[in-house]
Amino acid sequence: MALTRGLAQSFGARGAWGGRLWSSSSSPPCRLVRDHVADVLAHPSDGYFSSRPHVVGKVEEPLSFKTMIGKSGYDYKVRDLYRARGTSWLTPAEIFQPYYGQAVARYLVQDLLERGEQELRVCEIGGGNGTLAANVLDYVRSRHPDLYERTKYTVVDVSKALCERQELLVAGHDELHSSRFTTVAGDAADGGVWRGLVREREGHVYVLGTEILDNLPHDRVEKVGGEWMETWIRYDDDDSPNGREELRPLRDRSIGRCLEAFDWVGAREGAGSEAEDAGFLSSLENFLLSGSAGPEGSRGEDDDEVVFLPTAAVSILESLSIEIPDHTLVLIDFDSLPDVQLRGRNAPLVSNTEMAEARDASTYLVPVGSHDIFFPTNFSALRALYSGIMTSEAGTPGRVSAATRPSSEFFKEFADLQMTTTMSGYNPLIEDFRNTQVFVGQRTTKQ
């Protein structure tokens, strides 16, 4: 099995996503699914992440993988981290620091030098604790000091509290980073947030997003009588206090754009890797997450009449196409999730973890702040959406490319694998990422 739910949860969630906050102090009578999901996750006061400040954990010191006996030693250490910190999620940037961030930095520098660019400008969506940013800046300063003098790193995050945490952590790594690192508390789907970040819209910008796609709000469509209908949530039924679904004819532009860009029913992505052994992930599931339904795979793949669409991601791509037309977009996320109980393609895993024990829900219609909701990414669809948006909406002519590859291939090329290999030869950076992929979209306006 590619990824059991232990690491899906450990690695999949981020403290703040870059998508639009449609939330309000009280639920409206009726709204789209993406608005409901946004409230559950990121309501300013009651959302899952905003109301649980310690949901995303911090690893204070790098792990010594070389001294671990093998997989069992790695299993034990990560279990211990979860127990000691009482946290729900640890991201790969945390567990594999600084090596994860160094690998990303190597890619950025190599691509920049091949382009002949003179400045390194990075915008990260949803910066978590700031660990990735700090590790990238550390690497550039130590390995490329001249380039470091011409480096600017910005995090766009919906959480002001996390922005403050990121600034403190990055400055704590090196006081010189402070003059090269900034945060912007805002919505990455809002073009106004990106406007002004790039000086006169000139120069190439690297936009990063690690494990942010899975928490972006999605919309739901259902086929009735051969026609797709969009799903709205009504809140006027006393028997359904968390809302009930109502199907309506397609009207929403973002939903329509998603459906037109890709054959969601004809493509099956990620399902083939479910049967592979997951290593530590299975151990973490059995040891920590006794509430799991078991490694049965995703129900959603069996239902072609319902599809969950990444409409918030579309909004971010549209903003980038206009505000930062010359860019490289690097996204790392999951192509499948196990134990999904909801019907439909790309259906989310809805779960609540308390005291290291997970309880899954069979619906996304849960109370605000009560559960995490995270979605797999169809990377073939992401390529189609990116290519279509960057070709049709950017005002300046340019070359567009989009490619994906397994994250294991990416880290084999750019990570220092000696530092994450255990005594037995087991390497969790490679072997615990079998259902994650790296997306690289590039739009170059220079002729």
Automatic annotation (TrEMBL):
InterPro entries tied to this protein: NDUFAF7, NDUFAF7_sf, SAM-dependent_MTases_sf
Pfam families documented for this protein: Methyltransf_28 (PF02636)
Organism: Chloropicon primus
Name of the top EC class for this enzyme: transferase
Family of the protein in this entry: Belongs to the NDUFAF7 family.
EC number: 2.1.1.320
GO cellular component: mitochondrion
One MF annotation (Gene Ontology) recorded for this entry: protein-arginine omega-N symmetric methyltransferase activity
Catalytic activity: L-arginyl-[protein] + 2 S-adenosyl-L-methionine = N(omega),N(omega)'-dimethyl-L-arginyl-[protein] + 2 S-adenosyl-L-homocysteine + 2 H(+)
Keyword Nucleotide-binding set for record: no
Function: Arginine methyltransferase involved in the assembly or stability of mitochondrial NADH:ubiquinone oxidoreductase complex (complex I).
Keyword entries, A-Z: Methyltransferase, Mitochondrion, Transferase
Localization terms from the record: Mitochondrion
Protein name in the entry: Protein arginine methyltransferase NDUFAF7
One BP term from GO: methylation
PANTHER family assigned: PROTEIN ARGININE METHYLTRANSFERASE NDUFAF7 HOMOLOG, MITOCHONDRIAL, PROTEIN ARGININE METHYLTRANSFERASE NDUFAF7, MITOCHONDRIAL
